[in-house]
Write a structure and sequence with these properties.
- The protein contains 9 helices and 12 strands.
- The protein folds into 2 domains: 110 residues, Response regulator (Rossmann fold, 3-Layer(aba) Sandwich); 136 residues, Arc Repressor Mutant, subunit A, CATH 1.10.10.
- The protein is α/β, with parallel strands linked by helices and 260 residues long.
- The protein has a 4-stranded antiparallel β-sheet with strand order 5-6-7-8, with helices on one face.
- The longest helix is centred in the middle third of the chain and has 16 residues.
């Protein structure tokens, strides 16, 4: 969220954090570009009128680096201004003053479109497990599965890409940040925890398959085998061995989804 008015960034941050998102704020265009490179957000909210680099130029530079959904915020509410913002590539456009509940709804809608999840249709099912991506809930045999924030973020990313191999580096960067992109043992420990929450026995992959040296795949139709076993490669069990102790990240005890 980038806006040069601290009151607005504080209100939006509080409102979206209460909805389960993680919000990172910037007070101007240059800071927005820097933080976007550091945290690689899932969606960006940009005020158009900012000192230095304005929101339109920030959006242009961001899109040169990678595709990322953008919602433009501005005090200008005319039809022509809205059309201009959308024509320039914004995914949505919200005029100030805006209702915080409506903004949160628009954020969720843009994220659903970006992930290819249809409203009410973002549910992944297999065995006795149901993962509701829109409501951020997991049930097993009809009972709610209690997940920490980190466990949810990891499972959410796998479920959003169900049937596809997700690279180790992508999972580590998305869930913990770019500074963890090479910490494979740390990822193995957390994958092991998620597997147990989904009902897998210790040492067995269940529906989260390992692709040795590459990444993990959520196998919703049960057609894949663990690649390490399939190729005769014996890998250490997830969670085995020691892992360097790290400080607990903020909000790790709460389920949620990243909004940076």
């Amino acid at each position: 969220m980038a806006d040069d008015e601290p009151r607005i960034t504080k209100l939006v941050s509080l409102a979206l954090s209460a909805e389960g998102f993680r919000v990172v704020t910037a007070s101007g265009g240059e800071e927005a570009l820097q933080k976007a490179e550091e945290v690689r957000p899932d969606i960006i909210l940009l005020d158009i009128v900012m000192p230095g680099i304005d929101g339109i130029e920030v959006m242009r530079q961001l899109r040169e680096r990678r595709p990322v959904p953008v919602i433009l915020l501005t005090a200008k509410g005319s039809t022509s201004d809205k059309a201009k913002g959308l024509d320039l590539g914004a995914d949505d456009y919200v005029a100030k003053p805006f209702d915080l509940d409506e903004l949160a709804a628009r954020v969720r809608a843009v994220l659903r479109r970006a992930m290819g999840v249809a409203p009410g249709g973002g549910v992944v099912r297999f065995d006795d497990i149901e993962i509701d991506l829109e409501r951020r809930m997991v049930t097993r045999n009809g009972e709610l599965v209690q997940l920490s924030r980190t466990e949810w973020l990891l499972l959410q990313h796998l479920a959003t890409n169900a049937g596809k191999v997700v690279l180790h580096t992508e999972l580590l960067t998305k869930v913990w940040g770019p500074e963890y992109r090479d910490d494979l043992q740390y990822l193995r420990v957390w994958v092991s925890r998620v597997r147990r929450k989904l009902g897998s026995r210790p040492g067995e992959p269940g529906r989260i398959k390992t692709f040795q040296g590459i990444g993990y795949l959520l196998d919703v139709d049960g057609s894949r085998t663990d690649s390490a076993a399939a190729n005769g490669v014996h890998s250490s069990r997830d969670g085995a061995g020691s892992v360097q102790k790290r400080d607990k990240r903020p909000g790790e005890g709460d389920p949620g989804r990243l909004l940076q």
